[in-house]
Amino acid sequence: MVMRFMVLAWCLVLASPLPAQFTDRARVATLDRILQDAVDSNRIGGAVALVMRDGKVVYQRAVGWNDREAGRQMMPDALFRIASQTKALTSVAVMMLVEEGRVALSDRVSRFIPAYASTSVATRADTGVAIAPARRAITVRDLLTHTAGISYGTEAIVAQLYKAKGLGPAAGRGWYTADKDEPVCTTMERLASLPFVAQPGEEFVYGYNTDILGCVVERASGMPLDEFIRTRITVPLGMRDTWFFVPESGRTRLTAVYASDSAGHASRADDGARGQGHYVDGPRRSFSGGAGLVSTAQDYARFLSMLLNRGEIDGVRLLGARTVDVMSVNQVGTLYSSDGRGFGLGFETVDRFGASGFASLGTYGWGGAYGSNYKVDPAERLVIVYMTQMAPDASGTRERFVNAVYATLVD
Known about the structure:
Layout: H1 2-9, H2 25-40, E1 46-53, E2 56-67, E3 72-73, E4 80-81, H3 86-99, E5 120-125, E6 128-133, H4 140-145, H5 159-164, H6 184-191, H7 209-221, H8 225-237, E7 258-260, E8 266-268, E9 294-295, H9 297-308, E10 312-313, E11 316-317, H10 321-327, E12 341-343, E13 348-350, E14 364-367, E15 373-377, E16 382-387, H11 397-408
Antiparallel strand pairs: 1-2, 1-16, 2-3, 4-9, 5-6, 7-8, 10-11, 12-13, 13-14, 14-15, 15-16
Helix pairs in contact: 2-11, 3-7
């Protein structure tokens, strides 16, 4: 009964005449049902979903629980740990510095972080593990495209080496740094002493790449990453609820983390790096450019709307249109996949219609370890933001919701 009331309370679109793009009420009701069923069947704790088309909100829902155990219902302004969705903001920060001539895509990372002047690569050998020098220097482009050979250090071949230096298995599931009482550049300098898992430029390897870029931003701009993102991105865009660490005033808006158990049910995650994390109570010193931000659906949709508009929104321009075009097309050929998806300078790209559900050719996006996800579809002038806190998330709700959004669209 409580959950049904919540859907009625937050029918922000259906309470008024439907926008032209969402005129089929039965199909819109399907979106509501997908989200509500996931809560009612205990596959997720809660979610906020937001869809924009032509710069206007055409769908927004908050369902389920912000914190089930505390009895707090989900609200549209709930705060979510967006994990790897942070990468999009850091990638934009890098490209702003590229436009200003402070960074070049071809720059060696060692120009900003000397520890990367000589890196190494681990491979399996008859005698165990062989560690050899990298055949070339890692560049900024390598990091943006995740082709530097740098993982999160959880592979068996390197896991114990990374764990000994507070990374890999010692950092939650590899990517987590919110509990570190040191600046991110210190952590990334230590990372340079560890072997990576592929030669630069030869494979797509997802890992600490964008955290290293956060340090590049700091060194190239002369300011901490949190200050750069705040002064150059979030404040100009009016994103009032996006931070690396939650202020005390936002404590009750931070959504609790749940996890899919063996039966597919949402159980509250533990405290610590693999669960609730240190986003309110913690050292508050490590600004992870790869996975550190907390945001709301509204704020993140605002950021994505800037990208959809090729770098500008409401008279505020962060990037040149050509820069966004370069970022949002495949830059790695088939290194990322051979199924019609690619990877640009910070995003997954859709290079074949049907390769990513119903998303159009040219769509780009990514997701986060806590289950959040986004898509920017220029062909449909569409932004989709799905926020939840499930780590891991075996519910399949996001895919069903996104496909239903596309089924609802009319020209």
